[in-house]
Amino acid sequence: MRKFVYHFKEGSKEMKYLLGGKGANLAEMTNIGLPVPPGFTITTEACKDYNEHHQYLSDDIYAEMMTHLHILEEETGKKFGDETNPLLISVRSGAPFSMPGMMDTILNLGLNDQSVLGLIKATNDARSSYDCYRRFIQMFGDVVFQIPSYRFEQALTDLKERKNYTLDTELSAEDLKDLIATYKALYVSASGRDFPQDPFDQLRLSITAVFDSWENPRAVVYRRLHHIDNQLGTAVNIQSMVFGNTGDTSGTGIAFTRNPSTGENLFFGEYLLNAQGEDVVAGIRTPEPISHLEDTMPEVYKQLLDVAVLLELHYLDMQDIEFTIEKGELFVLQTRNGKRTAQAAINIAVDLVHEGKLTKEEAIMRIDTAQIDQLLHPSFDEASLRAATSLATGLPASPGAATGQIYFNAEDAVEAAERGEKVVLVRNETSPEDIEGMAKSVAILTAHGGMTSHAAVVARGMGKCCVAGCDAIAIDETKKVMQSATATLTEGDFLSLNGSTGSIYLGEIPLVETKIGGHFEELMRWVNEAKKLVVRVNADSPEDLEVGLHFGAEGVGLCRTEHMFFQEDRIPHVRQMIIAETKEERMVALAHLKEMQKEDFVGIFRAADGKPVNIRLLDPPLHEFLPKTDRDIEKLAREIGKPAEEIRQRVQDLAETNPMLGHRGCRLAITFPEIYIMQAEAIMESAIQIHDEGIAVYPEIMVPLVSSREEIAIIKNQLKEAIQTIFRKEQLVLPFDIGTMIEIPRACVTADEIAEEAQFFSFGTNDLTQLTFGFSRDDANKFLYAYQEQKILSTDPFQSIDQKGVGALVTTAVQRGRMTNPALKMGVCGEHGGDPASIQFFHRLGLQYVSCSPYRIPIARIAAAQASILEEREKVNV
Ligand code: ADP
Ligand code: MG
Ligand code: MG
């Protein structure tokens, strides 16, 4: 017969898939001799069996559970449902991965009108016995019949008001008895049935409620977002109760072996006397800091500290521990690897290496790259945050902290942003029409919709803070008012959002840059030792490059020359170049531009200090530079001395139906070779100037949008000739490469031919994704959320590379390129160069480098190191 139930003594921490995380750790703690109240775990296999049999708990499983319940009765010397000395138990859900949205825990199960009298007899404490009973009714009602907790809380508050009490602990046994009657009536009216008196009914209903909660929509969405297998199922832990609510030598608390916000190696935690379960986090009373326990119960404190030290050494990670003290006796109820801030994560990982508990590689693998983003972006100032008023909590849809003024529609948001305000867009839900408003806002708040709603998906795509589904606020978009339980806000009022926690706060909370300390530097040194991929930066200016270098960039992977063209003083010359109808006219404009470009390149080469700099020749559709309004056209006419009418005509001639598929990239050089020639000259002349300053320099000249060997061959020869002329004149030869951007599917499939003419390939995965899917990069947001919702796509292909399609093209290009040109240098310069999952893919393809925006460089470096450590580990395992 299959075994579905495990005594805590029969399990271990390795069994988390079978026993769930909570159950596995309860077993582990039991076996290393910690004071864990006895109990057993019904496995995740039982949950699967339950689901396979149409939500039916099989007789075999039930019988096996009963056997274990009897063992528990023997161990504790108590009897389930007994009228003199009843065994009370907790029923605790526990999946293999911690999962918000699952059912909560039920405490004090086994109480009914008779056994509560038994408990009073056994404990000689009517007050705490009734307290247990009323808590049980509330938790059972909440989790088994979804009777909202606040209705019970309200009844409790009413009673306290009537009695003029401020604290729950002031309630007498009689008060609690009355409260139980009220709760039972509430239960009947809400569920339409009596509160179950049979403890076995209570137990069966609770177990099936836990299994059912595996499939509740919130849990399903959470699993989808976190890529957790739907088939895992949850375990159920049944554990004998210990009581923290039995007077002032009892209590309950949470402890961390290190500080979870700073990572400091100091015991940290909070507790409440005469309390049960989650009272500490529920904010009923202000908890005491753990240090206070040292003064009041030194013995217990010392024991708890020993437990903490032992557990951390055992798990080799910072632990988050739940404990209860019953009349001076300590019990441990849970341990898990503690959640921590990004800063704490780094400090703890590095400290553990210093303490000889982890290897450097293990420390690197512990770092969650998604969390590192937090470190590099500003967060709320802690002191101001503590003083701030929390308004409500919604879903943490897209991480980051933001503060700004609220607007209720996209138009108002855009206008306010253009006035220079920081805008928080507040909507019931967003739709594709809101895109521009979302783009211009610092954060988005919606009252409706889940983690995959339009708002959530688009905000994540934009890397923008978003709290979604905050149903505790009411939004009237026409009246432009938002209302929470405690405050009413109107247009222009300040609001602060934490997209990582889902919390929203009244008013403006200052943001601070997170300090990255010595530990971070040290970790990043280890990262460099471990990684194989070179990480370069996408930088269009010396300033971007400086930021990138500060974060550890090893060169420039993409310098987009057209970004330099947009500047005030240059645009007239750019426009003149485009408008020009003769080559002579164009040459005049190009001569001006060349001097300006040289300035830029000199700055970048100087900052790069010998590191390779990949410069992409002019790429975008020409008309992007053209004057659009009449005023602009007339201004240009004056500047270059041409009739406005002629310019207007030329602008019209240049307009394209599909500019992204139009006259751009190397197609410009095929029709107007002088443009790229000018750029190549500017690059080499500035390289020579830098060389003369005594600084090493290494330009890579990149031809964009190549789709055939012939294109690159023609252009390369023109560029080479221009460069040779300069070298001859200057009596000097400098190293340089000419290569192509690979961003058109045809280029991937004919990469063997193209590689014969190119010294390097740089994969432009943005355009490659656009062209492979036929999705417009600029508009795809309007429908991509639906694709994710309907599971057509699991992630946004513009963020994380589509390995099956786009990835296959890249793989083909790599293989074919190497076939004809073994020395070919290959890297990636698209957005994907900063995405950890994509980086792992590129690592495995054996590319030399990835390149990304300056602030993503640390993430890319860590991801590159993790990819290579993972690969090494796999080699060892086969
Ligand atoms: P969660 O997964 O939400 O942390 P838990 O199952 O850990 O839920 O339980 C919620 C609270 O109840 C915790 O504070 C826990 O310590 C407490 N608790 C659980 N089981 C018992 C028990 N047998 N005796 C006393 N307290 C318990
Ligand atoms: Mg909970
Ligand atoms: Mg817990």
Automatic annotation (TrEMBL):
<dbReference type="GO" id="GO:0046872">
    <property type="term" value="F:metal ion binding"/>
</dbReference>
<feature type="binding site">
    <location>
        <position position="765"/>
    </location>
    <ligand>
        <name>substrate</name>
    </ligand>
</feature>
<feature type="domain" description="Pyruvate phosphate dikinase AMP/ATP-binding">
    <location>
        <begin position="302"/>
        <end position="348"/>
    </location>
</feature>
<keyword id="KW-0418">Kinase</keyword>
<feature type="binding site">
    <location>
        <position position="616"/>
    </location>
    <ligand>
        <name>substrate</name>
    </ligand>
</feature>
<feature type="active site" description="Tele-phosphohistidine intermediate">
    <location>
        <position position="454"/>
    </location>
</feature>
<dbReference type="InterPro" id="IPR036637">
    <property type="entry name" value="Phosphohistidine_dom_sf"/>
</dbReference>
<keyword id="KW-0808">Transferase</keyword>
<protein>
    <recommendedName>
        <fullName>Pyruvate, phosphate dikinase</fullName>
        <ecNumber>2.7.9.1</ecNumber>
    </recommendedName>
</protein>
<dbReference type="InterPro" id="IPR013815">
    <property type="entry name" value="ATP_grasp_subdomain_1"/>
</dbReference>
<dbReference type="Pfam" id="PF02896">
    <property type="entry name" value="PEP-utilizers_C"/>
</dbReference>
<feature type="binding site">
    <location>
        <position position="767"/>
    </location>
    <ligand>
        <name>Mg(2+)</name>
    </ligand>
</feature>
<dbReference type="InterPro" id="IPR010121">
    <property type="entry name" value="Pyruvate_phosphate_dikinase"/>
</dbReference>
<dbReference type="InterPro" id="IPR018274">
    <property type="entry name" value="PEP_util_AS"/>
</dbReference>
<feature type="binding site">
    <location>
        <position position="767"/>
    </location>
    <ligand>
        <name>substrate</name>
    </ligand>
</feature>
<dbReference type="GO" id="GO:0016301">
    <property type="term" value="F:kinase activity"/>
</dbReference>
<keyword id="KW-0479">Metal-binding</keyword>
<dbReference type="GO" id="GO:0005524">
    <property type="term" value="F:ATP binding"/>
</dbReference>
<dbReference type="GO" id="GO:0050242">
    <property type="term" value="F:pyruvate, phosphate dikinase activity"/>
</dbReference>
<keyword id="KW-0547">Nucleotide-binding</keyword>
<feature type="active site" description="Proton donor">
    <location>
        <position position="829"/>
    </location>
</feature>
<feature type="binding site">
    <location>
        <position position="766"/>
    </location>
    <ligand>
        <name>substrate</name>
    </ligand>
</feature>
<feature type="binding site">
    <location>
        <position position="560"/>
    </location>
    <ligand>
        <name>substrate</name>
    </ligand>
</feature>
<feature type="binding site">
    <location>
        <position position="764"/>
    </location>
    <ligand>
        <name>substrate</name>
    </ligand>
</feature>
<dbReference type="InterPro" id="IPR023151">
    <property type="entry name" value="PEP_util_CS"/>
</dbReference>
<dbReference type="InterPro" id="IPR040442">
    <property type="entry name" value="Pyrv_kinase-like_dom_sf"/>
</dbReference>
<dbReference type="Pfam" id="PF01326">
    <property type="entry name" value="PPDK_N"/>
</dbReference>
<dbReference type="InterPro" id="IPR002192">
    <property type="entry name" value="PPDK_AMP/ATP-bd"/>
</dbReference>
<dbReference type="Pfam" id="PF00391">
    <property type="entry name" value="PEP-utilizers"/>
</dbReference>
<dbReference type="InterPro" id="IPR000121">
    <property type="entry name" value="PEP_util_C"/>
</dbReference>
<feature type="domain" description="PEP-utilising enzyme mobile">
    <location>
        <begin position="421"/>
        <end position="502"/>
    </location>
</feature>
<keyword id="KW-0067">ATP-binding</keyword>
<keyword id="KW-0460">Magnesium</keyword>
<dbReference type="InterPro" id="IPR015813">
    <property type="entry name" value="Pyrv/PenolPyrv_kinase-like_dom"/>
</dbReference>
<dbReference type="InterPro" id="IPR008279">
    <property type="entry name" value="PEP-util_enz_mobile_dom"/>
</dbReference>
<comment type="similarity">
    <text>Belongs to the PEP-utilizing enzyme family.</text>
</comment>
<feature type="domain" description="PEP-utilising enzyme C-terminal">
    <location>
        <begin position="519"/>
        <end position="867"/>
    </location>
</feature>
<feature type="binding site">
    <location>
        <position position="743"/>
    </location>
    <ligand>
        <name>Mg(2+)</name>
    </ligand>
</feature>
<keyword id="KW-0670">Pyruvate</keyword>
<feature type="domain" description="Pyruvate phosphate dikinase AMP/ATP-binding">
    <location>
        <begin position="61"/>
        <end position="292"/>
    </location>
</feature>
<feature type="binding site">
    <location>
        <position position="743"/>
    </location>
    <ligand>
        <name>substrate</name>
    </ligand>
</feature>
